[in-house]
Task: structure prediction
Amino acid sequence: MRTLVIGDIHGCYDELASLVEKFNPESRDRIFTVGDIINRGPFSGKCIEFVREMKITSVMGNHEHWYIKSWPFDDNSVESFNFRRLEIEEHLEWMKTLQYYIINDDFIIVHAGFDPAIAFKDNSRDVLVSVRTLEHTGAPWFDGYYGTKHIYFGHWAKLGLMFGKYVTALDTGCVYGNKLSGYIIEENRLIQVPAKKVYHSIYEDTFNPEKRQ
Ligand SMILES: [Mn+2]
Result:
């Protein structure tokens, strides 16, 4: 059995399909994503459908978390998000089933991280999907983590790929024109697919098509 952990997808369907093809899963293999399947990129709906069809296990990302929290949308609430919200509407109930973290015998998968000063299970959902640096130290959350279970996470495209002793960061900014990454745990092997294009600027927190020339 092999285990593939995929970084932030953000609607990059072509790259997702290519990455899984590269992995070439057999029936005993398992695939996880670190969440943020949707938003910013072009094909959120197709990505969710692919994840569901392929029985890929995803944890909750801040974009799915936000989508669920904001439902039903009022007209003003979607301005800062490039959702094709109708496209993924039918997956709302499925999104609600996503766990905020997965703890296995050997490893943990979480979208953003956690505050190691607090027991994992006592961290708030907002922290699990959005933490980068800790408020009380200003340092990256993983600086204080020395646990026996290796943590795979995403959410931090500007940090990029990072192989630490205790943690592995897998958001390599595909939607920003970089790469989609997957890590095969048992083979200690990284697989990557380059983005077909820049779908979204990493320098803009919000997406406003009217600002584009
Ligand atoms: Mn994220």
